[in-house]
Write a structure and sequence with these properties.
1 helix; 3-stranded antiparallel sheet
């Protein structure tokens, strides 16, 4: 399997939850340079929400 961790040349959001009984982990790296990591289901949910609101394709909406 390929390494899907975001990098400067391939920014993005990567979430992993191997089984229902393990906590989720996530990492994000935006082309603007912002980065974050999270561990635990609730923290990963907040990471995804923040990414959707402020990074990734959000930079191309409404003049951001």
């Amino acid at each position: 399997m390929a390494n899907l961790t975001p990098t400067q040349t391939a920014p993005g959001l990567h979430i992993s939850k191997p089984s229902p009984d393990t906590p989720a982990t996530g990492s994000a790296l935006c082309h603007c340079g912002a980065s974050a990591t999270a561990s635990g289901d609730a923290q990963v949910q907040r990471l995804v929400q923040g990414w959707q609101e402020s990074h990734g394709s959000a930079h191309h909406k409404g003049g951001k």
